[in-house]
Every structure is written in C-alpha cells, then in structure tokens.
Amino acid sequence: FKGGDTCEYLLSSGRFLGEKVWQPHSCMMHKYKNSEAKNCLVDKHIVFIGDSRIRQLFYSFIKLINPQVKEEGNKHGNIPFEDKSSSIKVDFLWYPEVNGSMRQRIKSWTEGSVAKPHIIVVGAATWSIKIHNGSNEALTQYKINITSIAPLLEKLAKSSDVYWVLQDPVYEDMLSESRKMITNEKIDAYNEAAVRILNSSSRNSKAKVKVFSVSKLIAQETIMKSADGLHLPESSRDTNAMILMNVYCNKIMKPIDGSCCQPQPPLTLIQKLAFCFFTLSIIGSLIISLIHRNNFRKNKLCADLESGEEKKPAISTPNVSTLEMLLHSFCKLGLIMTYFYLCDRANLFMKENKFYTHSSFFIPIVYILVLGVFYTENTKETKVLNREQTDEWKGWMQLVILIYHISGASTFLPVYMHIRVLVAAYLFQTGYGHFSYFWVKGDFGVYRVCQVLFRLNFLVVVLCVVMDRPYQFYYFVPLVTVWFMIIYATLAIWPQIVQKKANGNCLWHFGLLLKLICLLTCIYFLSYSQGAFEKIFSFWPLSKCFELNGNVYEWWFRWKLDRYVVFHGMLFAFIYLALQKRQMISEGKGDPLFSSRVSNVLLFISVVSFSTYSIWASSCKNKTECNELHPSVSVVQILAFILIRNIPGYVRSVYSSFFAWFGKISLELFICQYHIWLAADTKGILVLIPGYPMFNVLVSTFIFVCVAHEISQITNDLAQIVVPKDNSTLLKRLLCIAGFFSGLLFFSAMQDQSRH
C-alpha cells in the first residue's frame, strides 16, 4: 500500500472526519495561518477565472491571506485583490462560460511579453447549461471550446500551476425555477467531457493541467446545507481553498503536519554515514553468524561409519565476545532504524490527520484499565513506591499518554490538564528515585552517572542522527537528563550529605534542607528570568542540544512548565526516608501505613484533594492561565494519588503486572511513538493498512510495542559494553564517546553551512 502521488490524492480523493474536518486520502493537510500563507505567496500573482462558484473559491482563498476581506463588489465583474505588505496579487476574472472570450484571455498570457500568473484556477459550466436550457448543442459547443483552450492551458502549465475545477453537484430540490435545468446528470456530462479532453491533451505534453475534482466529493456531503442549492456552504468553500493552498505551498513551506505534496527530504551527510555504519554492522553480524554456523556443522553429532554409534564432540559453547554482541545489537538496531526511516521520512506509508472525539479517547482508557485490573499480582515487597508499584505507575501513565496522543485529545482542555499532571508525575519519580539512591547509597561515582545518562539518551541520539531531528525535539529526554544532573550536582557538591552521615549527627539534616532551599531559590530565579535562562543554554555547544527552530524558547517553556515537581519529588523522598528510619510508618503486608485514625483522615484529605484538582482542571477555560498555575498545584494530585495507593495495606501489597510490563519500557514507548505509531513527528497517524482504521491501529500498535521492547533490550546490552565498571576502561570509552560527539558537531556544522 504505497503512498503514491499525494498531490494527486489531495486533488481527487478524501473523506470527512466528523462534519467539517476533511481528510485527504493517504496524506495530511496543514491548516495555514495568515502569516504562513503570506510567506508562501510573497511576490505571487494568482488568477481565478470562471463563474459565481469560482468567485466563492476566490473569496475563501483571499481570506486565508486577509480574514478581514468582505464579499462585496460587482458580482458579475472582475474583482482585484492586493496585499501590498507581501506583494501578493489575486484577481477574479468574470468568465461564466467557456467560450471565445475566455480563450482570448488565456491566450494573452501565452504570448511572450506578457507576465504570466503563478497560479491559474479555471472552471465554468453551469451558466452554459442555464442559458441554453440544458440543450445537447450547448454541450457539443462546450467540448469544442475546451478542446481549443486545452493546448493553451498546457502551455501555461509549463511555467505556472494550472487547475481546472470540475463542477460541483447541485441540490436539485432547492434550485429556483430559473435554475431547474441545471441537473446533476448534465453536470456529470460536462465534467466527463472536460476530464477526457484535458487528459487527452496532457498525454501529448510534458506539462499537465491539474484537475481539481475533490470539490465534487466535498459538495456531495455538504450541498444539502446550501442556501440556494447551487452554491456551497462557507465551510466547504474554505476547505477547497485550504486544499488549494496545500497543493501549492506545502513544497515551499514544508510544514511538519502537511505531508501532502511534499517531496521526500534528501539524505544528509550524517544520515548517509549512519546508513553506512549500520550496513557494515549488518554485514559483520551476518559474517560472524555464518562462521558460527559453519563451525557448528563441523562439530555436530556424527555417526561412526563402522559401529554406527554417535560420537559427541567434546566442545564447550564459547562465550559471546564483546565484538559479537556489539555487531549483533547494531545489526538489530540498523533494521529497526530502517523501519523508522521508511515510516516517517520516506514517502512509502500513508499518513492521516488526528481527529478527536470523546469516544476515541475514553473507550480505550476504560479498556486498558479493565485489562490492568485483570492482571493483578502480589508485590515482592510492601514498601511505599516499591519497584513493582513505580513500574505499574509509569506503565498506566504511559498508556494513557499514548492514547491521548493518537486520539488528538490535546484539543480538549480538561484532558490536556490531566495529562500535564501525568508528565509531572514522571518528573516527580525522577526526583524521588535519584534522590533516594544517592541519599541511601552515597554512590556519586562516574559509573553510575554514565549508566543513567546512556540509558536515557542512547535511543534519542540515534534518532537525532537517523531522522535528522534536533535533540530538543524529543523534549522529555533532555528534561529528565538535565534534572538528573541537577539532582546529582545538588547532592554531590561539598558537603556531600548522605543518610549514613546524617544518622550520626542530626545537624546534617538541616544542611541537606539548606541545599534544597538553595536549589528551590535557583529554580524560582530562572523561572522568572527568561533572559538568564536563555543565556545559559545559548552557549555553544549547549545551544546545539537545546535549540529548536533557532532558539531555546521551547526548552525554556518545557522546563518552566514542571519546574517545581522534581524538587517536590526530592523533598517527598527525604521526608519518607526520615519517617521510615525512625519507624514512624508501618509497611508490613496488609498493614495500613499509619494508625487507623490517622490513615482514615489522610485518605479522606487525599480523596478530596484529588477530586478538587480534577474539578479545577475540568473547569479550565484558558490554557495559558492554567499552565501558569500548573507547576505549583500539580503536586497536590500526585501526592494524593501516592497516599491513596499506599495507605491501605492491601492496595499497597498488590500491583498490575500488565501495567508494570509497559512501565519497564515506558521511555522507549514515549520516544518510539514519534515516528512508528504516530506520523509526521507526532502530528498525524501512521497508516499501514488504509481503509481499515481499527485494524490499522492494532497492527501498527503491535509492531510499535515489539520494537520499543527490543530497543530496551538493545540499550541494556550496549550499556554493559559502553559503560563498564572498570574505571580505566570506562575512561577510554568516554574518550571514544567524546570523539563521536566531536565528529557529530563537525559534520553538523558542515551540513548547516551547505544548507545556508
């Protein structure tokens, strides 16, 4: 099911998602803003030629440039439009019939000295039907006139974009008496004649007049809403204008969510080098496999020709060498990255726009919750936020976030606000988990730091190379990476205060609290000083990591949105571990966390707090205002959930193995969805099986989850090789990694220079 010519699909086929959202077959349509339309059409001249229906399309088109334009002026005359700020000129020329006058106007543009329009949109027929009372002679004359015009249009198509708009159907029951002769049967006959003649002409010419037939499909769904049975309702006209804008502008503006009419991006130098590396890895892995297979054949069980007895060779299976594991891992990774590239960079598979409905979000949520409850098992330990419980928490949150992304639920503000809490909860766990490790174990060694950084960043670095995307594009990984380094720096800087030292002298607890207060002060200062924040992350080479679209604003926005929650996670871990050390909480199997009275009071407060936050989030009216409050209040629902999940002894003693399985690969799931489950860098949906949406989601989801699981295994295998425990070996590996990133920066600079 190849994507094929997406421009042709955009002009000829599609369907409605809901009532007003048009989905072209196989590709995604970008919704152009006024500024984007002006940038695309700067210094361009566009001409619309035809009848009142073309005039409607003309007005919808110029409203994309200037929404303030009003439909006024001589309805049966020429209408000029000019945007002087962008030097855009759009003209409507009143030629309601395909006749000699229209031919003469078109012919004037083919003559050498006259400036040709960049875009020409032509269409007419209903006036011919009306004036000649639907006679066959009029149709015959229409064919003759189009035959004479077609070569002129083909000549113009060599240097301009020329579109012939087919006639939309009418709603015959609503037509006035003077238009009753305009029937759908007559319209079909005129359209058929136009298509046959234009296609016949294009076969003899390299240039081609593009037939704009998609408006017929749109009209079939919406013409019954017409005011007079002939002219389309405004929403349908706007859709046609947006399609026209996508056909012309997508190849110029290259919007991420506008895959229609976009050529496949050329391979960069870094992508070519990555392709060579993975190819060599695959070849190397195959050679080693063949050698092992050949050795196995030589040493396999063989029958003694004289006695007929079997002899077993006394050969022990050799251990897999580091080189073999490396080649095998990169071989698998190379095949997986090929799939990534084919899904989201090559024009091989189809892509579609998201369309949100309440059922598309909430029904899958209910389904996975039922599955999660079904797979309930006992935990190995009953501590607060034990490993199984945190894996379960990550798992169900990740599944909810995935459903949120594929359903396009970000357009529904209450859902958006709750998803923001789930992202904050991930960062809360980052603060809680890393603080707990450093505080309890006191291990500030380089090995631990490198292991964490490698596991967090390996997949993203590979995708940056293969998919030609900046590091900041995968915003969550830079976020958790920077916060990990902040946590490490806070606790590792002198004086290093750990639990063992603090147990000897209680004053060290105050020293740690002082460190946390200093951290909170720095966070508060940076959150209200955008200039200082941007200066820090604009220094080279940090800027190469955190810039997106030429600035670090996106990074500042993402960091600021959840700026306090990691601190909250660290503080919660400190308080919990202090209470645990002093045996002020009961973590036995089936026991409530506190005394019955205290537990009941805390449970009541938690339920009320959880519900209050949900009510507030559901009543949000403005995303900007709610985002301002979110960093300070998100911790309320997170703490409420932790208490509800851990205070009752039975609830703390069980977990969902279904959710926990997904939790173990949650990072890979979050990153992989960008390219092999969603499409166009998360803006759309990948379509492997067109025409069967549910079956397509099942198949693409199965592949997506398997790939994420395999990448998790590859990352774990490579982490043991790239980050060894031996310090001298680790130092050599770090020098190699530094060399790799230096080369990456060098080739990236070369690419930037060639692009400019």
From TrEMBL:
* Membrane topology label: Multi-pass membrane protein
One of the entry's Gene Ontology molecular-function terms is: N-acetylneuraminate 9-O-acetyltransferase activity
* First-level EC class: transferase
The protein, known as: N-acetylneuraminate (7)9-O-acetyltransferase
Which protein family is it in? Belongs to the PC-esterase family. CASD1 subfamily.
Q: Which UniProt keywords apply?
A: Acyltransferase, Glycoprotein, Golgi apparatus, Membrane, Transferase, Transmembrane, Transmembrane helix
What EC number(s) does its UniProt record assign?
2.3.1.45
Q: List membrane-spanning regions.
A: 269-291, 325-343, 355-375, 396-417, 452-468, 474-494, 506-526, 561-579, 600-617, 659-679, 685-709, 730-750
Subcellular localization:
Golgi apparatus membrane
